[in-house]
Design goal:
By secondary structure, this protein is an alpha+beta fold. It has four domains: about 70 residues, no CATH class; about 80 residues, no CATH class; about 90 residues, Pdz3 Domain (Roll), CATH 2.30.42.10; about 130 residues, no CATH class. It is built from nine helices and 16 strands. It has a five-stranded mixed beta barrel. Strands 11-10-12-13 form a four-stranded antiparallel β-sheet. The longest helix is centred in the last third of the chain and has 31 residues. It starts with a helix and ends with a helix. Its cofactor is Zn(2+). Keywords: Hydrolase, Membrane, Metal-binding, Metalloprotease, Protease, Transmembrane, Transmembrane helix, Zinc. It is found in: Cell membrane; Membrane.
Length: about 425
């Protein structure tokens, strides 16, 4: 039963994170007029699909990411290549309206052609030899034209529907939208948790055993009104004062049963590991705060937790990159699907609230990692767009394709190494 719960939790967490990220790309792409032939969750063989309008939505076997295939983004390969024999249907202007790639059709008045040259991005034409006269013909592709394959129609994108021919700001928004939607997901999850759990107050809910709070005489129900001569109005005030006094003894004033009590308290110093090479010092009183349910405070709490999560993940990423140059890098710093599954297995046992919090943290991590300036990731492709905006011309397409291909191979190798490291770490 526990194994089944972990599997279901992993599928939900993975599915939500990838769907939100890729939907961000598609949301802005479609608003820029870019055609999106496919929206995929997962990689590898297709296990489920359905078509809505011009987009094929698919779920694929391997849980290692997802993608939105955008027309003219340089990553898709057209199904027609020179040397192929296909059938075409022409309109009254002798423009190609359908390129037929199988026999599952009911079209009439079609022509066969042996493709010699073709261009589905810029020139939008097919040039080839027809059997009835053995001569070479060049046919323009109509503005609304389709590939016909497996009995379904796949629209061929005209120039004005391709990523390549959009303005730099439209490209930037489309690429940045994936990480942006991950950041928004983190914000929504933390705000939702704040509404559900309530926001902390300056009252004491529970005192931890053998903690500074217990030693000082703090009790459940106490309301902290002064700490280190600073008036206290909420939990944030307490945290800020404790951060400044560190582990020095100070006086705390509380309200209890309508009376005021004072006592001395000394926060406990805790060293918490942030990354493999960096630790963070915290000072704790050792109690949990009471919470209250209000209309607006959860929004501020959610924003604050989101910013803290972003800072935490950003620090970890910078530390990881720095470790490459200091020789302290280890693949243990990275988690692939196997590592995420193992973490889900641990977190889900602590309850749904912790799983949601961890999902929010993972979402901001996915957004920031995708903004790294690595070709094939969103950050690397954004650099190409910035180059185009500065120099008023796109980078050479062959150079871009080569760089992206190298980046994709690099990312794939890293994924394989991380996955193998996770398998060794957790299962061998």
């Amino acid at each position: 039963m526990s194994f089944l719960v972990t599997i279901i939790s992993f599928i939900i967490v993975f599915g939500v994170l990838v769907t939100v990220h890729e939907y961000g790309h598609m949301f802005f792409a479609k608003r820029a007029g870019i055609m999106c032939p496919e929206f995929a969750i997962g990689m590898g063989p297709k296990i489920f699909s359905f078509r809505k309008n011009e987009t094929l939505y698919t779920i694929r076997l391997l849980p290692v990411g997802g993608y939105v295939r955008m027309a003219g983004d340089g990553l898709e390969e057209p199904p027609v290549q020179p040397g192929m024999h296909v059938k075409i249907k022409l309109n009254e202007q002798d423009e190609i309206t359908h390129i037929i790639l199988d026999d599952q059709h009911k079209f009439q008045q079609i022509e066969a052609i042996e493709v010699k040259q073709c261009d589905f991005k810029d020139g939008l034409y097919i040039e080839g030899v027809t059997p009835f006269d053995q001569e070479r013909h060049r046919c323009t592709i109509a503005k609304k034209a389709y590939f016909v394959e497996n009995g379904s129609l796949i629209q061929i994108a005209p120039r004005d529907r391709q990523f390549t021919y959009k303005k730099p700001y439209q490209k930037f928004l489309t690429l940045f939208a994936g990480p942006l939607f991950n950041f928004l997901l983190t914000l929504v999850l933390f705000i939702g948790l704040a509404y559900y759990q309530g926001t902390p107050t300056n009252s004491v809910d529970e005192v931890m055993k053998d903690s500074p709070a217990q030693h000082a005489g703090l009790k459940s129900g106490d309301k902290i009104v002064k700490l280190d001569d600073k008036k206290i109005a909420n939990k944030d005030d307490i945290d800020n004062v404790v951060k400044n006094i560190k582990n020095n003894k100070t006086e705390v004033t509380v309200e209890r049963d309508g009376k005021t009590h004072t006592m001395d308290i000394k926060p406990k110093k805790i060293e918490q590991k942030v990354t493999k090479t960096k630790t963070e010092t915290r000072y704790l009183l050792g109690y949990s705060a009471s919470t209250e349910h209000t209309v607006f405070k959860p929004i501020g709490s959610g924003i604050e937790r989101s910013l803290e999560a972003g800072k935490y993940i950003f620090t970890a990423i910078v530390s990881m990159i720095a470790s490459i140059f200091t020789g302290q890098f280890s693949f243990d710093m990275l988690n692939g699907p196997v590592g995420i599954y193992h973490t889900v297995d641990s977190v889900v046992k602590t309850g749904i609230i912790n799983l949601i919090s961890w999902t929010a943290l993972l979402s901001v991590n996915l957004g920031l990692m995708n903004l790294l300036p690595i070709p094939a990731l969103d950050g690397g492709r954004i650099l190409f767009v910035i180059y185009e905006a500065i120099f008023r011309k796109p980078i050479n397409k062959k150079a871009e394709t080569t760089i992206v291909a190298i980046g994709a191979v690099f990312v794939l190798i890293i994924m394989v190494l991380v996955t193998w490291n996770d398998i060794q770490r957790y299962f061998l």
